[in-house]
Write a structure and sequence with these properties.
327 residues, disordered C terminus, mainly alpha
Amino acid sequence: MDPSSSTTSSVNAPLDHLAGFVAKTYGSVLLGTYLSLILYGGILHQTYRYFGAYPEDKKGLKIIVSLTVLLETVHTAACIYICYKALVTDHSDIARLENLMKRTHFGPLLMSIIIGLTQGFFARRAYVFGKKYRAWIRLVAVLMFLAFGFSIGSTCVGLLMPLRHGKISATRTPWLEPCATGIAIVEDVIMTTVLILALHHSRSGIKSTDSLLNRVILYAITTGMLTSGCMILLFVTNLAFPDDIIYVGVSFVATKLYTNSLLAALNTRQSLRDVAFHPSGVKVFGSGACVCAEEAHDLPGPATGGANAVTVEFVEMAVSLKVEGNA
């Protein structure tokens, strides 16, 4: 056997192992970071629009938006840091790469806080506007605290347990993160279902009004499918690929989707007001549905409840129109 070929093989062996390790782990993290950066740009754009269009909003709401965006900024910076360390400064040191994997355990905790802020806002507003669905909203609140507890446990276990044989699963309790993700999925399903039922029961029989309600329902289904679908993918990858940390890249995207849904809901309020106040009609969610001003008095009142900022502001707008009409 040629000694030179033997030497080459022995040198390439660890390099091949390193390349395989990076591809199975930080490849998904890099792709998730790329996608999350796109969504983060959307967050910044929507935040700029929100503070410019709604300066009269309550201070508490502005604090929630500011805190959520601040946490998203920290989350984005952490994603970039992990990718830079893994693929630039420590790319040839497998020991450092394995140690860096432990830092991904901060992700579930940060993600849980962001989801809790967005879902908590929706749940609080929905609770105020109807007794019919309050039991479900209370259940969502309990689930939010459970998910937060599982996320804290997952982060603590991941940081305290040593990494063995390059396996990230060795630093995890296999049921903690999937439980937190599964609970978040249940929250999404409950909130979306409550919204759809509330809007469906609010039909007035007026064609233009019902058309607007149908489009808001479609919006709720679409956003619910986006967040729930991404969380289901996170749940599956968490269980199916515990050592490849594919789920980490998916979690980067899921976190950004929740904040985008919150800001999108807040920024559509003016469009809903325009629909009610302008007889000529305006576009809502990119569609041409319109409601005449005189028909807006028949929009659903606060007893219908709701589970989303879009519904709540829609109801608030309807109430103000009814008051003006009765005056």
